[in-house]
């Protein structure tokens, strides 16, 4: 109507279209309805006509915007609400992610069966769109998601409340959705894993500072099954609904789809972040920078799983934890993870109570910004035999059963360099009879099962490197070992590119990086002679920016 508007098609000096003065009005698209007109001019003619069928049917896939994310689900109910037929149609949705608040009832009347309150949502029909529709377009105006149905073209949409200096139109966030997979899906390896993951829109999509979570989950689950026990840890939905929901979300919405399709959208990880936020009363999990250590500790606490590590000090009871922070007393410019772990344990007087199936080691650094090393060599194989408590150990010199361990000898390059120093009774006496070592204080380590004579032939307890998480300028990425060959390495970045600029969304990428394999086979001495300026970007990031190294023992994980 002429004169009922507030504009001539301009907003804050920007001409969007042309019309007479006071004939334009800017509204959120959710406030716009299609008006049905009758040719007879009778406004009630349409009301008396046959009722339109519901626009959605039970079982149909749909999606809808909520806050800064597009969520999807399955229609359970579509129709008018009891006693409110004049309010129009409503849709009851069984959500893929636990972000709902509806139990399937309306004013005491059951409309449909919703298995869990947090997986149900009741919405006006105009808020819902058919899932995976090619006509669904999503727009970001400032930080708010707006949805528009358009079958043939892009539209420029603004809202009166959230207008910015420029408008951006984007392909739908829903078009970047990922499916739920109920069936347990083991990880692929070798060429199959590379073919599954390599490329753009691969891995886990990043969103709102989620790289700490994306890199950690991709490291843990993409090509390795040693942490899969957390996906099946017993939980009771009746007594611990949050743990059951988080486990179901992690298994069916993130890990299984990642392994089957090679991609998981940001709405799935956002749902997990919301659960973590709710469980910890921490408002930062959905939008602020975190680190993998905090994320894993909070996740494992939410899932109520058994700690990964049991570590004993010489003077204390065993302590349980999920990760171990390396704290060596001294740090050369270049060191291997093997040397850092041995030095940390030896100087702190620590031992593993039992061999872990999965070992997550945090590299020495002060916070996210300051690292304490020039380069760290992620040892491909980690020997923890001599770090185990209450187990037989070999003498460093004659391979008989060791009875003593010497901290001062550890720094001595003349005796088995690069290894822990432990001796049988005879070798301990001989070594410490030298005047250079007369002041040493070897410690008795005991022999399980009593006295033992003769040489000891034992299998070394080794763990294999399967991933490295790195950080540079507060951004986390990961390197994944995807097969048995030295060149079987992948690089993952959940925010490798961006569509739509500042108000757009991230595009994840996985690429092969076989070049890192050659450097991982070097010794510490060889690596120290390499000029870091000559390194390729991927190699430099792996060796110089490591944050966490992930090791596993496939044999032991079978018993977890």
Q: What is the CA-atom radius of gyration, in angstroms?
A: 30 Å
Distance between the termini: 71 Å
In terms of structural class, how would the helical and strand content be classed?
alpha+beta
Q: What is the count of distinct domains? A: 3
Spatial shape: elongated
Mean pLDDT over all positions: 81
Low-confidence region ranges: 36-49, 132-172
Number of helices: 12
Q: Profile the largest sheet.
A: 9 strands, mixed
Q: Could you give me the name of the CATH homologous superfamily of the largest domain?
A: Cysteine proteinases
Count every beta strand, where a strand is a DSSP E run of 2 or more residues: 33
Instruction: Fill in the CATH topology of the largest domain.
Output: Cathepsin B, Chain A
Estimate percent helicity. 10-25%
Keywords: Cytoplasm, Hydrolase, Metal-binding, Phosphoprotein, Protease, Thiol protease, Ubl conjugation pathway, Zinc
Organism: Amphiprion ocellaris
Subcellular location: Cytoplasm, Cytoskeleton, Microtubule organizing center, Centrosome; Cytoplasm, Perinuclear region
Pfam families: CAP_GLY (PF01302), UCH (PF00443)
């Amino acid at each position: 109507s002429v004169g009922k508007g507030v504009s001539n098609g301009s907003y804050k000096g920007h001409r969007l279209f042309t019309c007479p003065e006071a004939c334009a009005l800017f509204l959120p698209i959710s406030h716009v309805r299609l008006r049905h007109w009758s040719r007879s001019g009778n406004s009630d003619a349409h009301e008396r006509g046959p009722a339109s069928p519901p626009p959605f049917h039970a079982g149909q896939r749909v999606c809808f915007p909520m806050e800064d994310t597009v969520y999807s689900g399955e229609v359970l109910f579509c129709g008018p609400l009891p006693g409110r037929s004049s309010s129009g149609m409503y849709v009851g949705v069984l959500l893929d992610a636990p972000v709902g608040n509806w139990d399937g009832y309306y004013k005491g009347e059951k409309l449909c069966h919703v298995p869990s309150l947090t997986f149900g949502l009741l919405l006006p029909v105009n808020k819902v769109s058919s899932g995976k529709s090619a006509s669904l377009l999503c727009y970001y105006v400032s930080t708010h998601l707006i949805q528009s149905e358009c079958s043939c073209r892009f539209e420029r949409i603004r809202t009166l409340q959230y207008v910015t200096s420029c408008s951006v139109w984007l392909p739908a966030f829903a078009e970047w959705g990922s499916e739920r997979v109920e069936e347990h899906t083991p990880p692929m390896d070798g060429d199959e894993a590379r073919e599954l993951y390599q490329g753009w829109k691969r891995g886990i999509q990043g969103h709102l500072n989620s790289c700490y979570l994306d890199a950690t989950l991709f490291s843990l689950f993409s090509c390795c099954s040693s942490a899969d026990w957390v996906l099946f840890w017993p939980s009771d939905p009746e007594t611990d609904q949050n743990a059951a929901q988080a486990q179901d979300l992690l298994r069916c919405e993130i890990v299984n789809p990642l392994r089957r399709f090679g991609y998981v959208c940001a709405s799935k990880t956002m749902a997990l972040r919301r659960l973590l936020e709710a469980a910890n009363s921490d408002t930062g999990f959905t939008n602020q920078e975190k680190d993998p250590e905090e994320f894993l500790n909070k996740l494992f606490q939410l899932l109520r799983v058994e700690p990964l590590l049991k570590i004993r000090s010489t003077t204390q009871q065993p302590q349980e934890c999920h990760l171990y922070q390396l704290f060596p007393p001294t740090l050369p410019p270049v060191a291997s993870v093997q040397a850092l772990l041995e030095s940390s344990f030896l100087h702190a007087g620590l031992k593993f109570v039992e061999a872990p199936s999965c070992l997550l080691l945090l590299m020495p650094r002060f916070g996210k910004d300051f690292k304490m090393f020039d380069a760290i060599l992620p040892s491909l194989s980690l020997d923890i035999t001599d770090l185990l408590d209450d187990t037989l150990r070999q003498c460093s010199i004659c391979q008989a059963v060791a009875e003593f361990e010497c901290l001062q000898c550890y720094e001595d390059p003349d005796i088995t360099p690069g290894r822990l120093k432990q001796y049988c009774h005879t070798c301990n006496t001989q070594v410490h009879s030298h005047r250079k070592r007369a002041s040493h204080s070897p410690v008795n380590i005991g022999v399980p099962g009593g006295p033992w004579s003769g040489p000891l032939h034992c299998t070394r307890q080794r763990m294999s490197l399967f991933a490295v998480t790195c950080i540079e300028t507060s951004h986390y990425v990961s390197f994944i070992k995807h097969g048995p060959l030295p060149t079987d390495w992948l690089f993952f970045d959940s925010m490798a590119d961006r569509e739509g600029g500042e108000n757009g969304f991230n595009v994840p990428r996985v690429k092969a990086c076989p070049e890192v394999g050659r450097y991982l086979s070097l010794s510490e001495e060889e690596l120290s002679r390499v000029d870091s300026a000559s390194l390729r970007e991927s190699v430099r990031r792996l060796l110089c920016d490591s944050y966490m190294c992930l090791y596993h023992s496939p044999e032991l994980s079978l018993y977890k």
